[in-house]
Design goal:
By secondary structure, the protein is an alpha+beta fold. It has ten helices and twelve strands. The structure holds adenosine-5'-diphosphate and magnesium ion. Adenosine-5'-diphosphate binds next to helix 1, strand 4 and strand 5. InterPro entries: PurM-like_C_dom, PurM-like_C_sf, PurM-like_N, PurM-like_N_sf, ThiL-like.
């Protein structure tokens, strides 16, 4: 099967690759064409996933398709953007029809769940690697950036943390667990649900936001730096799942919630007056701390004592 047949069979023919609202021209020409309504801005983000670095190799291609798009779409959620489209640059060691069929199926499922249309890409031979670029739209000036957190704001997260990091020993086959524990943890790892609706609900309300990909402490550090403030996190207010606590024990579960990556849950700051309406509307918001003057991130125990650890999230190329 040649490159063009591959693109046609597995990608251009997928339901998520058909033109529709916001996409004037999709796969097949030199460029795709997007319609951006007047008064809106394009939000764009790229993520690369390398076999053996970002996912185990070999792994289930269906789950990989799902997860790679979820990870990319999570950046749209973090900006409060409405999903529009995505491109896929795929580097493959060989053409295996079964692998491609399952990968495209997982990708399509997540694309349709997120409201993202596949509008193009590139297909090359080499070690397995995926680059996804997502496009969203957001009313001009309303994107949720990292740089406007203010002292006095509350620090919040959109759900339980640490589940994906907890799942890693299961993914790598280093440990096993009963289905009651393994299933929810693995689901968080393989099909994270980008918090797109929550991100859009936070437009005009949150003062800053991001999606937690490198761990709560490390990612809160990004908001602190960009906003020139200090974020104080209360350790006992961080939501941790029962499955994670049972699997790792309390101390390691807490560690996974603080420093484990891959959660793709939103972390954001907002003025306290915004909270009651958001909670009344049913959004899964957990207040875990507050913004104060200063810099960096601090972790507090129940007595308000500083217990900030020195270990932070994962960084490529970090020399240690
Ligand atoms: P060009 O040579 O003009 O860059 P290509 O031959 O690489 O075009 O690709 C042909 C068409 O197929 C283009 O519209 C491109 O965006 C699309 N395409 C290529 N690879 C993929 C892929 N993996 N998924 C989706 N679309 C793809
Ligand atoms: Mg090309």
């Amino acid at each position: 099967m040649g490159e063009f047949e591959l693109i046609r069979n597995f990608f251009a023919a997928a339901p998520c690759a058909q033109v529709g609202e916001g996409v004037a021209l999709g796969i097949g020409d030199d460029c795709a064409l997007l319609d951006v309504p007047f008064g809106e801005q394009l939000a764009i983000s790229t993520d690369t996933l390398v076999a053996g670095v970002h996912f185990a190799d070999p792994c289930d291609p269906f789950l990989l398709g799902q997860r790679s798009l979820a990870v990319a779409a999570s950046d749209l959620a973090a900006m409060g953007a409405t999903p529009l489209a995505f491109t896929l640059a795929l580097t493959l060691p060989a053409v295996e029809a079964d692998w491609l069929e399952a990968f495209a199926r997982g990708l399509n499922l997540m694309a349709q769940g997120c409201g993202l249309r596949l509008i193009g890409g590139d297909t090359t031979r080499g070690p397995l690697c995926l680059t996804l670029t997502v496009f969203g739209r957001v009313p001009r000036g309303q994107a949720l950036t990292r740089s406007a957190a203010r002292p006095g704001d509350l620090l919040c997260v959109g759900g339980e943390l640490g589940n994906a990091a907890g799942a890693l020993p299961l993914v790598l086959g280093q440990r096993s667990a009963t289905p009651a524990i393994a299933e929810p943890l693995l689901a968080h790892y393989w099909s994270p649900q980008p918090q797109l609706a929550l991100g859009q609900a936070l437009r005009g309300k949150a003062s800053s936001a991001l999606d937690i990909s490198d761990g709560l402490l490390a990612d809160c550090g990004h908001i602190a730096l960009a906003s020139k403030v200090r974020l104080l996190i209360e350790n006992d207010r961080i939501p941790v799942s029962l499955a994670l606590q049972e699997f790792l024990g309390d101390a390691d579960a807490q560690q996974a919630a603080l420093s484990g990556g891959d959660d793709y849950v939103l972390a954001f700051t907002l003025a306290a007056v915004e909270l009651p309406t958001l909670l009344a509307d049913g959004w899964p918001i957990h207040v875990i701390g507050r913004v104060v003057e200063g810099q960096g991130v601090g972790l507090l125990d129940v007595h308000g004592q500083d217990i900030t650890p020195t270990i932070r999230g994962y960084q490529h190329f970090r020399s240690e």
